[in-house]
Amino acid sequence: MKSSISVRDLTLNFGAVSVLKNLNLEVAEGEFIVLLGPSGCGKSTLLNCLAGLLDLSDGQIWIKGQNVTWAEPNERGIGMVFQSYALYPQMTVRGNLSFGLKNARMPQAEIDRRVARAAEILQIGPLLDRKPGALSGGQRQRVAIGRALVRDVDVFLFDEPLSNLDAKLRSELRVEIKRLHARLGNTMVYVTHDQIEALTLADRIAVMRGGIIQQLDAPQTIYNKPANLFVAGFIGSPSMNFLHGAVVDGGRGFSVAGTVIALEGYDGGRPVEMAKAILGVRPEHIDIVHEPESGRTIPATVELDEPMGADSLVWLTTGGAQLSVRVPVERRLAPGTAVHLRLDVGKASLFDAVTEQRV
């Protein structure tokens, strides 16, 4: 597939601090890539490098087959949407949308065409003669997206555009951005720390930590087969449950708190024996049963039943570890109840406790 953005051996240092470390990234034409990670992981810094707002310490950036490593932002063929709306308060929406085009001395007829097209796509036509102060947060963000849209570029960069909005507006605009990508087919690189945004929007997610991409893959692959403990713990709400134990019996079983769980059906094949290993299981891949099953269940005690609306989270303790299990909301379990947990090993992840990598 043809590459739209190519990041090659990118390094960025702020003095003695290395922020991005020998980073490589290929974004296909028309792809929606999400840069996901906690604060300080380097995701916004990488986006700013793509935009030309930061100079690299080493490496290259190519956009649409052109080396733009040292090109000015307005020479890169990109449109950027920032976290803050950054609208001119004294101008109308129409003025905000057309300002950059007028500065570029574009013919008025073409400006009018582009503004009308952006307003139609983003459904802000009735707002064109209002000023930003008369708009809601969601409407302002639509205008900010429209300002990038009128540039008619191939690549859009989004820097946490929904983080200033309340939960309902975030959900609504998330759908709008997904529709926008489906309609336009442009390449989009989107920065967020919100995993729900990442999982719902992305064609592929780049999970970052400490200036390094930990895993780059499709959302479901990252959710079901995390590359390491960090990715496993960062993705999912609540996050993956972790059981510390050992791989025993020639790789056939996992020993935890005196109980051995059969690893038959584990997706990674039969692992080697490990004195220190971690078995990760999602809350929805555990069943609560009342009778033990040899090689399939571990004993646990209910600690808390937390109704979540459509379902409930039951928090339990086993072998000193705390686990969460997703159950139907009508199933109520009193604190202190002794139960057994049946693990779906076929959907579990096994990690080396020393390297923290998935086995």
UniProtKB/TrEMBL annotation:
An example of a GO molecular function for this protein is:
ATP binding
What SMART domains does the record point to? Answer: AAA
Question: Which Pfam families does the entry link to?
Answer: ABC_tran, TOBE_2
| ABC transporter domain ranges (all copies) | 5-235
Q: Which residues form a coiled coil?
A: none
Query: What domain of life is recorded for the organism?
Result: Bacteria
Q: Which terms are listed as keywords in the entry?
A: ATP-binding, Nucleotide-binding, Transport
> Which InterPro entries does the record associate with it?
AAA+_ATPase, ABC_transporter-like_ATP-bd, ABC_transporter-like_CS, ABC_transpr_MalK-like, ABC_transpr_MalK/UgpC-like, Mo/tungstate-bd_C_term_dom, NA-bd_OB-fold, P-loop_NTPase
Q: Which SUPFAM superfamilies match?
A: MOP-like (SSF50331), P-loop containing nucleoside triphosphate hydrolases (SSF52540)
Signal peptide residues on this chain, from the entry's feature table: none
Q: Which family does it belong to?
A: Belongs to the ABC transporter superfamily.
* Name of the protein in its database record: ABC transporter ATP-binding protein
Source organism per UniProt: Paragemmobacter amnigenus
